């Protein structure tokens, strides 16, 4: 089967030029761009731009709450040919089974899912997560072509301090001649040298240009990251200039499904850079041949002989206005409309760890009752819109509402282990969420994805927790024992099985329900529950074992 | 063991900048470049240039007639860290044993010998060479880290015509995820597309800029080749400009040892490009990080954390004046003086095919006597300084000197199979060599390295052939039954065991001896003997089976 795209103006990513030519495709691959004239199927693109489809060099599928097939449906119309997914979240819940599950469910999609292997599962020793992945567990995955290497090595202190478990993972990756991705915000100088010397080839955490230039000058590829929350494009825009641009690629890291649907994906980054005055051909080069080179994807990222026919037809170059998308030679999106995606049937019975991931005994009010051992408590102070938290000391009145003080915006927080029925619950108080009644619960809580419950009373907290256990995980809002709204995430307790518009709608309804608990606009308590247990973001967090001082990594008693 | 190179001005190949910093080396690798201050061994380079050592991306060891250790001694003082060797010649004589022999004898040298696997052994079906290497024979070599892939695919007609044996080799290489080097002079258009589509990633045969730009634009890396004979730098000098330079590397392909000793190696190409007005930092980038990227050599080609400490101290940047050379952290050349190289002892008994490669029965005058079957003969016309030959028809007088006519510069030519005692001899006449008496013989005859003898009489021809058989191969000049000079090449009949100055001196004496046969200055008959049997260079060549019309690949009778 051959297809000819004729009358195109082709973006040549090797020469940064646009060339008038016809592109001949045979089966999955490009025959060439030139004076080709005939094919089984001839498409006149009418002088429009033809360019290679885009690659997102670093992505977490789980942040979208979408299954791979649903994610593909959202990304492909924006011109995405491939993502490099780090299945860090599902691996923290389900271990190697989680990685296998994503790999199987993303095979044969109209967008290629490459994987890098989660390097930090669990994130820290204080995390009670679902599984531990050492170098030995990861090793069998390197044999797959779609596995490109070891994912972001977030544990940079472990690299610098030469933690043997960390060095083992790095060495195993190097022996396979696959890549090792970096993640080392603000690291510089000799510590950065030591980190890079382990073969950690890139970084997507640069937030200022000096940091990026130091890392690039020391040999790292820079991933310019522009996602839903972490947005570094403006700060790194100078990287689009010489001599830096040839060592850069593009990534989104974490994206909400609504943003992907409405704003775009990698196309958006190139478009925004163009709006800032940068040549879109540079952005396209970063997102195609350079990404393929950096991540070592053979035959990806160019409209050239032998390359996979992952090709876009653009209505306009500067706005990166994607009309048609070809994936492996097949038209998968036409005039901005996604064509039907074949379902990839999976035997869910083969993935018990994925589909029954909320392993917790029924919760009762007792589980959420604090036994007072004094009047002064450490309280976690949440800051609206930030992941940082602070410690506050509060004198609580335990004779009323077991210490909860809605007037002072101090309510109860429980972080429950939910992987292995241990019954471990870290219990305490949180200030700043604005919840005046009822409770919310979530099984999305980075990185170990505990069951987090916050509320004003034990009955609603127990009801919220038990509801999530009954639906296999997700997010919910409870008032007076009644579930006001939920967002089921039956896959590992963190991923939905619905499509992006449905998930977006459930999310909207859920966030509206939160208002019924008295939460003011501008405060999103589910963002706090998602990160309240992440033991690497300062200053005071709650683990399944109780309060943790992040800076010292020491557990603290609730009472002083 | 740590070494600090302080007060350097360091060439950063990632940013094309020069940065003042100190470089710290630990054992074989670079710790970093920065404010490092102490080490076991501190060297003040006094503000001189520090740059990564150079990589020759395509090289034939055999053309230098030197063993790897002797070659290293010649290249290292010119700043070479690594070569990518295609052992095509020794493989044509000794097959897989030849490749193994070079790999073993080049291990642990102060210059890294990478290999690509000869793709065309034998070169054509008309070549009676020493061994046939199919994909199956090559496959076991891919497991070695020093084997980078499949060497120059010269058989581009075979690729385009989809010869199954050729496609098998290409597919095997692709499956290993290693590289495939190209060799397709003047190929363009759809044929080039088809060739590149097989994953053939580079080309070193570009002789004009339009050809180079087409290949580069279609995704190939361009190796700018500047060797002893094939010199493409001037014609391709525009590739040093944007946007081309980032897809180019440097190579010499074939070098005479005398040129390496006196003119330089990769340093010479960068120097010559600088003399033509091109920024030496671009040349250095091509010869370092880009070569390492193109050829997939991990941790090679930069002064950066984790990279092998292959580092040069230059007295001057524009003239690429190499003073000191560090290889894997060890000083191997100081103030332009090579430090002693440890011998790599090899069990020569383990390489019988290499050390007894001239397998031919004793030659007699009878072997060189033409039985006349008419008066008109096809005669090969050699052209001084060219590899091209033409066909001439001459009326020879067989009643005198068996057809030899020194007055007309027509003498006798014999191409003898010398690998398997077949006794096959292609016999005929050659014009234009200027030999007036005696004979010369050589076991260097591309690509199958037959024994080639040319002379005015059968007695000297037999003596010359028998002398080479007695010394295991080489080159010699015979007059009146006496050997005037020889250059022994006991390794596969194509490589010496002496050092470069000795080989150069033997070569000088040999070429002087040729003058005693009456050959005028400016004619080098040993160049003709080296290529007179190469069945891919037009128009008329001599094989072990007789005359060959190169263009039709049809054997022709001597008599018309």
Please provide a brief summary of the model.
The structure is a homodimer of 560-residue chains. By secondary structure, the first copy, chain A, is of the alpha/beta class.
Walk me through what this model shows:
- The structure is a homodimer of 560-residue chains.
- Chain A is globular and about 85 Å long.
- In chain A, the strands form 5 sheets. In chain A, strands 1, 2, 3, 4, 5, 14, 15, 16 and 17 form a 9-stranded mixed sheet that branches. Chain A has an 8-stranded mixed sheet with strand order 19-18-21-20-23-22-24-25, sandwiched between helices. In chain A, strands 6-7-8-9-10 form a 5-stranded parallel sheet.
- Chain A is 24% helix and 28% strand.
- In chain A, a hairpin with a 2-residue loop joins strand 24 and strand 25.
- Chain A is α/β, with parallel strands linked by helices.
- At the A-B interface, strand 3, helix 7 and helix 8 of A face strand 3, helix 7 and helix 8 of B.
């Amino acid at each position: 089967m051959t297809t000819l795209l004729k009358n195109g103006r082709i973006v040549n990513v090797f020469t940064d030029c646009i060339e008038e030519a016809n592109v001949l495709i045979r089966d999955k691959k490009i025959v060439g761009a030139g004076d080709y004239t005939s094919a089984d199927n001839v498409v006149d693109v009418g002088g429009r731009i033809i360019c290679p489809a885009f690659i997102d060099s670093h992505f977490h599928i789980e942040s979208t709450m979408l299954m791979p097939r649903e994610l593909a449906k959202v990304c492909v119309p924006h011109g995405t040919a491939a993502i490099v997914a780090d299945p860090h979240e599902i691996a923290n819940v389900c271990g190697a089974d989680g990685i296998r599950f994503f790999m199987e469910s993303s095979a044969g999609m109209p967008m290629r899912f490459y994987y890098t292997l989660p390097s930090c599962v669990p994130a820290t020793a204080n995390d009670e997560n679902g599984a531990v992945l050492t170098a030995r567990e990861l090793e069998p995955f390197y044999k797959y072509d779609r596995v490109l290497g070891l994912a972001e090595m977030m544990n940079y202190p472990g690299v610098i301090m030469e933690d043997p478990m960390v060095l083992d993972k790095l060495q195993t990756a190097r022996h396979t001649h696959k890549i090792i991705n970096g993640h080392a915000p603000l690291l510089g100088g000799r510590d950065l040298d030591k980190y890079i010397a382990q073969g950690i080839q890139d970084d997507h955490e640069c937030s200022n240009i000096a940091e990026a230039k130091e890392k690039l000058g020391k040999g790292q590829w820079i991933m310019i990251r522009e996602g839903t929350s972490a947005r570094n494009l403006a700060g790194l825009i100078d990287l689009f200039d010489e001599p830096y641009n040839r060592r850069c690629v593009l990534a989104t890291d974490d994206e909400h499904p609504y943003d992907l649907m409405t704003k775009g994906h990698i196309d958006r980054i190139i478009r925004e850079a163009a709006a800032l005055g940068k040549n879109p051909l540079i952005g396209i080069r970063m997102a195609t041949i350079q990404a393929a080179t950096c991540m070592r994807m053979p035959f990806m990222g160019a409209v050239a002989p032998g390359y996979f026919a992952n090709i876009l037809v653009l209505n306009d170059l500067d706005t990166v206005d994607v009309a048609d998308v070809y994936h492996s030679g097949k038209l998968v999106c036409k005039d901005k409309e996604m064509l039907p995606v074949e379902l990839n049937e999976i035997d869910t019975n083969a993935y018990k760890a994925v589909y029954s991931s909320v392993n917790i005994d029924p919760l009762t009010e007792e589980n959420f009752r604090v036994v007072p051992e004094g009047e002064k408590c450490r309280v976690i102070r949440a800051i609206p819109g930030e992941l940082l938290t602070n410690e506050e000391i509060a004198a609580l009145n335990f004779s009323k509402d077991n210490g909860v003080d809605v007037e002072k915006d101090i309510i109860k927080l429980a972080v429950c282990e939910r992987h292995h029925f241990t019954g471990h619950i870290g219990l305490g108080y949180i200030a700043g969420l604005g919840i005046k009644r009822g409770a919310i619960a979530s099984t999305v809580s980075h990185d170990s994805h505990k069951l987090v419950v916050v509320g004003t009373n034990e009955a609603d907290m127990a009801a919220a927790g038990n509801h999530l256990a009954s639906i296999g995980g997700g997010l919910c809002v409870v008032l007076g024992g009644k579930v006001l709204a939920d967002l089921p995430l039956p896959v590992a307790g963190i991923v939905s099985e619905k499509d992006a518009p449905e998930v977006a709608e459930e999310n909207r309804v859920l966030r509206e329900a939160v208002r019924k608990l008295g939460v003011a606009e501008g405060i999103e308590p589910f963002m706090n529950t998602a990160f309240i247990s992440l033991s690497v973001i300062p200053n005071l967090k709650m683990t399944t074992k109780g309060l943790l001082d992040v800076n010292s990594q020491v557990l603290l008693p609730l009472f002083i």
